[in-house]
Amino acid sequence: MTTMTDPPKDSFRLGMLIYDTRYRSLTIQVVALIAFMLLAAWLISNTAQNLAALGKPINFGFLSGPAQYDINQTLIPYDNQDSHLRASVVGLLNTLLVAVLGCVLATVVGVLVGVLRLSRNWLVGRIMTVYVEMFRNVPVLLWIVFAMAILIESLPAPRDFRGDTPQASMLFADSVALTNRGFYIPKPVFDRSLGGNPEAPAPEAAPVSPAPPTGVVGMTGGSSRIATGGGSAAPGAAAPGQAPQGQSGAAPTGAQPASSALDWLVILGVFGGSLLGARAIGRWADRKQEATGLRPRTIWVQLAVVFVPVIMVLMALGVRLERPELTGFNFDGGIHMRNSLIALWLALSFYTAAFIAEIVRGGILAISKGQTEAAAALGLRPNRIMSLVILPQALRVIIPPLISQYLNLTKNSSLAIAVGYMDITGTLGGITMNQTGRELECVLLLMLCYLVISLLISVVMNWYNNRVKLVER
Amino acid sequence: MSGTHAHTAAYVRDTMLPEQAPPATSVGVLGWMRANLFSNWFNAILTLLSVAFIYQVLAAILPWVFQSSWTANSLNECRAQIDAAYGPHAEGACWAVIRERYLQLIFGFYPSELYWRPILAFALTLAALGPVLFTALPRKMLWLSVAAPFLVPWLLWGGSAWVPVAVALGFVLGYVAFRVVASVAGALLGAIAAGLVPVLWWLLLASGWAGLMQSVLPLGIEAVDSRNFGGFMLSITIGVVAIACSLPIGVLLALGRQSNLLIIKAICTGFIELIRGVPLITLLFVASLLLNYFMPPGTDFDIILRVIIMVTLFASAYMAEVIRGGLAALPKGQYEAADALGLDYWKAQRLIIMPQALKISIPGIVSTFIGVFKDTTLVSIIGLLDPLGFSNSIRANAEWNGIVWELYGFIAFMFFVFCFSMSRYSMYLERKLQTEHR
């Protein structure tokens, strides 16, 4: 023991920066930081020089200028006199729309395929394997343009729905029309809308009324239905956008009933409140079960709490479904989902579903068979085994990669530009950029938008991961 | 026991019965069908539905595929031929467009008398990949793998043979610098010298040297402009370069993100999250519109090179995350054992950590490769003529205006072949490296 000496308290020498592990990491970091900052400074100074030479310093003022281009699929009111900023917001909402729709469909299809791929039925398993391999090994861009081509080439044109013996007919009691210009589906409108909607019906009502020649309207098969909307309207104006006028006496003249953002906010708010209420009832039932051992039967009360208020609000608002009608050479009214949206939605969903199917399959396979057997030995029934033992464990494996697939789907939705769907890449990164020539600003904003979406999803993912993490030693 | 029993029972069997054949419904085709297709009523319904579905799909596709025309010179001629051969209502594929244009779909506008160069380059790439992918091949072929990165671009773009030599010389100089400096001043300074010397050589001296050598001893092949690149050649070029470069960069980024040096970790994490948070298409916009802004005024380097750089960065970020997963999956004991053996950081990484981490992450690495290769189709959006971009220009041609399925089908088939074989290779590799007992 006595031979052991303290480390010499020597003075600091320059060489220790490299050879002493205590200082070496510091040295490396400082060098890396300096190199990084030099690189950044070099890039920025180059950019500044180049932009100065071109005479366009960085300036985001262009965003407030009028966009002067049309967007054919919008969630919020927009016309070509609105600013570039509003066009970008419309694009961002379109991105979110297709992302949400895509995630829902991809999850449904993916879970179904993943489970069926494990089926004991040999044929079903093989079909699902072929589906997965087919979609995973072909680029998503190809699937998108392929879906677009299928929609355009194989669906009937709107004029095929005309005449006494039409070549094509609408689905679901004449409420859904699948045409090669897109899908027309019914749209909920509110007779007693809260918004007073000075702007909402503009997209369909304003351009429609003068447009169709009277002779063509007379030929439409839908004219008998239009008559219920009030015979007072001139045939040329019998467009669905105006049909409700006769029906609802409550609607003030001039203001047309339609959906406004306020109505939807109210409905969503009520629905959210109902969900919380239902959850509170569930918690109450849990406490009761803990205390007495008996669980009160709450399912009907919960269902009532969730749905009755929403239905009441909908009735109070005077909700109706506005069906698309064939007028002239095209359909009017209802919601028009364009081909580009449908193609993008289907292609992204089925492409992502192939990956989700593999994730689901992996998750289920990851739970060892002993778990099922142990649960069965405890006397649980098969459906309880699935919901209490297998699923909670499998979900822990499935959810994180599932969310990263959602992220991929959202990022892949930027390929909308290939089929002309106006998402944020199409507006901000497409037409706005080409019109204004502000590449740097537009691309930076575009990246920022996607980055924010990604980071938000990552935050959710981390929160979930922390919640379900196994507590280890 | 049996003796007492014999008094009460009328008959006791004292020999074993011979084995009987299993029932006919549980062996052979019938048994297999019963077990796998009709095990219960639900499965039976599923089977029947599946058969109906398969029949529908095949009945729609097969006649179209086989009632086809291979010889026509335009879409109208094609339709006339199919009508003549299979009746007026026959729907058939017009494969003639593939026959007429397959060279363009593969090579783009590459001069047709020089097709041997991309073919040779492709063969060289395969030969270079061979010894890396399959250990059964002779190890001497690895020299080819070393030479290929310099030979292949030279074959594709052509030009003076001294340029690839100058580039390769940079690596040689770096190695020499490392040996010399490391023996004098230690490994760390050696590593810094090994990084600095080649960069200085490439930036300051290499082009002059190559020009000088070219004037002294002209040696070269005809140069081909980047804008003539197209079709699958372009996809494969971008894909292979991005794949090959992204693995080492990804390893470094993953190590950086795992390291306990705060600043390095922050830089790596920021880079990875930035790249992974944005879609590839925005990075391609950067490549096509912004990258020239970031360079010193007056530089104008090739669009394909810019795209390759951005795709490589993109792939590296994903690769880094995959490898980080592998690193995180290693038990902590492995790191501690490496420390206990007295290995320094790089030796521990090279000998203990990386071989295991890379093995764990093989499936992820290969699916990243596949993803990168598939994503090369995105370059058609910024106007490069990859197969998808080329199919649009073929459709714009008056003779083939209106043709859709044949082109998409052909492109999809080619991509499927490439990607599917990659995924099968990864399964083979996983099996081969499987060291656990099962």
From TrEMBL, chain A:
Q: Which family does it belong to?
A: Belongs to the binding-protein-dependent transport system permease family. HisMQ subfamily.
Q: Name one GO cellular component term.
A: ATP-binding cassette (ABC) transporter complex
Q: Where does this protein chiefly localize?
A: membrane
- Which UniProt keyword terms apply here? Amino-acid transport, Cell membrane, Membrane, Transmembrane, Transmembrane helix, Transport
Cell location: Cell inner membrane; Cell membrane
Provide the GO MF annotations for this entry: transmembrane transporter activity
Chain ranges of the ABC transmembrane type-1 domain: 92-461
Provide the protein name. Answer: General L-amino acid transport system permease protein
* PANTHER family (UniProt xref): AMINO-ACID ABC TRANSPORTER PERMEASE PROTEIN YHDX-RELATED, MEMBRANE COMPONENT OF AMINO ACID ABC TRANSPORTER
Q: Where are the transmembrane segments?
A: 26-44, 96-118, 130-152, 261-278, 299-321, 341-364, 443-464
Topology of the protein relative to the lipid bilayer: Multi-pass membrane protein
Segments carrying the region annotation (Disordered) are 195-255
Membrane in keyword set: yes
Compositional bias (Low complexity) spans?
198-208, 234-255
Biological-process GO terms, alphabetical: amino acid transport
Q: Does the keyword Nucleotidyltransferase apply?
A: no
What organism does this protein naturally occur in? Rhodovulum marinum
> CDD domains per the record?
TM_PBP2 (cd06261)
Automatic annotation (TrEMBL), chain B:
Question: Which Gene Ontology cellular component annotation is one that this UniProt entry carries?
Answer: ATP-binding cassette (ABC) transporter complex
What SUPFAM superfamilies does the database record attribute to this sequence? MetI-like
Question: Which segments cross the bilayer?
Answer: 41-66, 114-134, 188-212, 232-255, 267-291, 303-323, 360-385, 405-423
Q: Which InterPro entries match?
A: AA_ABC_transptr_permease_3TM, ArtM/GltK/GlnP/TcyL/YhdX-like, MetI-like, MetI-like_sf
GO function terms (MF aspect): transmembrane transporter activity
Q: Major location, coarse class?
A: membrane
Keywords for the protein's UniProt record, in alphabetical order = Cell membrane, Membrane, Transmembrane, Transmembrane helix, Transport
The subcellular location is:
Cell inner membrane; Cell membrane
Specify whether Lyase is a keyword of the entry: no
List the membrane topology term(s).
Multi-pass membrane protein
Q: Which GO terms describe its biological process?
A: amino acid transport
Annotated ranges, domain ABC transmembrane type-1 = 232-426
Q: Does the keyword Metal-binding apply?
A: no
Q: Which Pfam families match?
A: BPD_transp_1
Q: Family per UniProt? A: Belongs to the binding-protein-dependent transport system permease family. HisMQ subfamily.
Q: What is this protein called?
A: L-glutamine ABC transporter membrane protein /L-glutamate ABC transporter membrane protein /L-aspartate ABC transporter membrane protein /L-asparagine ABC transporter membrane protein
From what organism does this protein derive? Answer: Rhodovulum marinum
